[in-house]
Each structure stands twice: as C-alpha cells, then as structure tokens.
C-alpha cells in the first residue's frame, strides 16, 4: 500500500532524449468528487481532467497556473480543473439531464472544446483551444501538444477504484526539445513499454516499482516527488468582497426576504452565511463608508 498516494514524479531516460511524468491521486481526487456528490460519469471525467492538469502543471517552467476546461452542448456543459506550480488543485463540473452510460467524451460533453489556459504570475496569459475530435481526453491533449509545441507526446490517463476508494493516475512521455536528430524509434520503444501498464499497477504500486516494471532494461533517473493537494481559495473574506459589489439596500432586502444570505463554494462545498448583523457590520466598515470617517 502506498505511503503517500498524492505524488507526482518526474523522470528522465539517460540514453534517450525523452522525459516522463507519473502522477498518482487519492485524497485530492476524493476531495473534489465528494464535494458535490457527482455521478460516476462526472467523477470519471473530473478524475481524467485532474490527472491531465497535474501532468501539464508539471511542465511549467515558471510560477503560475494552468486551467484545463471542457465545455460543450452535451449533458456535461462544463468540467474544469485548475492547478498551479505547487501542485495545488481544485475543480468543478456542471451537468444537467440524463447522463449517457457509455462514458465517452463526446457523449458527455457533446460538440465542444478543450480549453487550456496558462497564466504566469509574471508575463502574458496564453490560451489554447482544441476541438473535441479525439475519442479520449488523452487524445485531445496529444493533439494540443502536436499543435502548440510540436513535440511527440503520449499520455495514459486512468480512473477507477482501489481498495474501495476512487483513484486517478497517469503517465506522460514527451520528447525533449531541440532534437539534433530523429529519435522517433526511441520514443516508440518507450511508448510500447508504457502501454503495458495495468490499472491495478497504477493505483496500487509505489511509483518506483511501476517505473522499474516498465523500464527495468533502460536507465531512468527519477527526481524527488512533488506532493499534490486539494486547495480551494474560497474564504469568508472573498464572500464579503462579493457582497460589497452590490448595494447595501439590496443585501438588506435579501436578508429580510430569506432570513440570511447563503453563499456556497462549488469547489469545496463550504457554506458561508450572513445575517442582518453581518451585513450591517460589513457595510459599516467598508472603505468609503461615512461611518468609518473621523469627524
């Protein structure tokens, strides 16, 4: 049994111009899917997005974040995961109507797009949009890398259960940039080896054991793992900021009608409540309020 099931490993092949990543998710995945009691089909989709976002976030060479979003006209109108360079992740989905049982990407999302938004803390934001033409999320992401970076990239994304708990895991292989010659045969060799991975191995074995099983005949340099965690940015202060965007009279009227104002975070399920006293206190201390000025 794994000692920590929320880790991302980066590794390099000593004899090939190829790098790899392996991610295993347990608590982070459970936190996201249990926050809203999502149906199984939506849980699986969010798990795939979670794996993908973690793997993509690990490719960042700067401090910032990546948002991976599926949007379309199908039963699942929106599914999105956001992660940053510290591997702090959160996600949410919007769905309505009957969900198809086949679990296929197009059946769930319909005619739609995969939108990848990269937001550096310093510098300009970049956004890539990919039509959902491939049968799987992994296939769509491979198209993204082929278009945006022209680097051979292969992903394996798995979701399921291990010891009664939902699990998500994945592997990424990618050619290193600035190739001086054609290394396609090396990449195909590693791709064939990686394709032998089984779900139960990804979900139940330590990362080092997985890498040994896959590549024991090749020299692999494995770097220290990076911990992954669920992190939501919601807070009572953020909710107060949102309330201050409306007029005080409107907020007071809402409290008079409903008894209180309830604010719910779709990412983590947290509830924030504001009664009449809270509203009076909030607006009285707001910047620019006459009650805060000295006379």
Question: Would you write up a description of this structure?
Answer:
By secondary structure, this protein is an alpha+beta fold. It folds into 2 domains: 10-230, Hsp33 domain (3-Layer(bab) Sandwich), CATH 3.55.30.10; 236-285, HSP33 redox switch-like (CBS domain Like, Alpha-Beta Complex). Helices cover 33% and strands 31% of the residues. It has 10 helices and 14 strands. It has helices spanning 27-35, 40-57, 105-109, 137-148, 184-194, 199-204, 207-215, 236-243, 248-258, 276-284, and strands at residues 7-13, 18-25, 64-72, 76-84, 88-95, 112-120, 126-131, 153-162, 165-175, 220-222, 226-227, 229-230, 261-264, 271-274. Strands 1, 2, 8, 9, 10 and 11 form a 6-stranded antiparallel sheet that branches. Strands 7-6-3-4-5-12 form a 6-stranded mixed sheet. A hairpin with a 5-residue loop joins strand 6 and strand 7. Helix 9 (248-258) packs antiparallel against helix 10. Residues 290-295 have low confidence and may be disordered.
Largest sheet: 6 strands, antiparallel
The CATH architecture name of the largest domain reads 3-Layer(bab) Sandwich
Structural class based on helices, strands and sheet pairing: alpha+beta
CATH class of the largest domain: Alpha Beta
In DSSP terms (H or I, runs of 4 or more residues), the helix count works out at 10
Order of helices and strands: EEHHEEEHEEHEEHHHEEEHHEEH
Number of domains: 2
Number of E-state strands: 14
In whole angstroms, how far apart are the ends?
Answer: 67 Å
Please state the oligomeric state of the protein chains shown: single chain
> Runs with pLDDT <50, length 5+?
290-295
Strand content: 25-35%
């Amino acid at each position: 049994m794994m000692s920590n099931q929320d880790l991302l490993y980066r590794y390099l092949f000593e004899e090939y111009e190829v790098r790899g990543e392996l991610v295993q998710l347990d608590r982070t995945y459970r936190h996201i899917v249990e926050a809203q009691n999502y149906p199984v089909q939506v849980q699986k989709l969010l798990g795939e997005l979670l794996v993908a976002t973690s793997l993509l976030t690990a490719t960042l060479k700067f401090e910032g974040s990546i948002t991976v979003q599926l949007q379309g006209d199908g039963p699942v109108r929106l599914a999105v995961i956001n992660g940053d360079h510290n591997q702090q992740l959160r996600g949410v989905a919007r769905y309505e109507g009957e969900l198809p049982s086949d679990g296929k990407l197009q059946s769930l999302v319909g005619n739609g797009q995969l939108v990848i938004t990269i937001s550096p803390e310093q510098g300009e934001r970049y956004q890539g949009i990919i039509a959902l033409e491939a049968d799987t999320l992994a296939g769509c992401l491979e198209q993204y890398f082929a278009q945006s970076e022209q680097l051979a990239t292969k992903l394996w994304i798995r979701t399921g259960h291990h010891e009664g708990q939902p699990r998500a895991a994945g592997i990424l292989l990618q050619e290193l940039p600035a190739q001086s010659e054609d290394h396609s045969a090396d990449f195909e060799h590693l791709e064939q080896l990686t394709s032998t991975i089984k779900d139960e191995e990804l979900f139940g074995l330590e990362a080092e054991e997985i890498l040994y099983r896959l590549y024991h005949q090749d020299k692999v340099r494995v770097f220290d793992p990076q911990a992954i965690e669920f992190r939501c940015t919601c807070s009572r202060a953020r909710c107060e900021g949102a309330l201050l965007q409306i007029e005080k009279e409107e907020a007071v009227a809402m409290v008079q009608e409903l008894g209180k104002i309830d604010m719910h975070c779709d990412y983590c399920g947290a509830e924030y409540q504001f009664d009449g006293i809270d509203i009076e206190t909030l607006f009285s201390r707001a910047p620019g309020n006459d009650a805060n000025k000295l006379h």
